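Tip: read the tokens left to right.
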């Protein structure tokens, strides 16, 4: 599985961005997908994950109610809609995949920078 993230950028606090992650490779079928992020000087942290069917999702508490994860398996693409962005959301966002929600960080793609100005 190969993962390609896009959609990052610079936005003012309160604004929105939508990240996309395109997956390729035959092994993608059945995989859970998700997002991690890493802010400057901080460790990487889990953001959100979604099961293959989309029926199970999980979010870190700090983004609940503001971020929505979704996927379109026909397009081999996952999305992260980010609303009400805060400066604390500034980070490099990484697309990940794995066989289960718990192991969604098994495969990593390159990151996309999200910067939220105050």
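Filled-in amino acids:
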């Amino acid at each position: 599985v190969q993962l390609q993230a896009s959609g990052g950028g610079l936005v003012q606090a309160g604004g929105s961005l939508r990240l996309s992650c395109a997956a390729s490779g035959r092994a993608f079928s059945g995989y859970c997908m998700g997002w991690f992020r890493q802010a400057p000087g901080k460790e990487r942290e889990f953001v959100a994950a979604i099961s293959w069917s989309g029926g199970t999702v999980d979010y870190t508490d700090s983004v609940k109610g503001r971020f929505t994860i979704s996927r379109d398996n026909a397009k081999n693409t996952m999305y992260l809609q980010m609303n009400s962005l805060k400066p604390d959301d500034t980070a490099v966002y990484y697309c990940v995949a794995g066989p289960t929600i718990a192991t969604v960080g098994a495969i990593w793609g390159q990151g996309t920078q999200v910067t939220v100005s105050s």
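The chain is about 0% helix and 55% strand. The radius of gyration is 13 Å.
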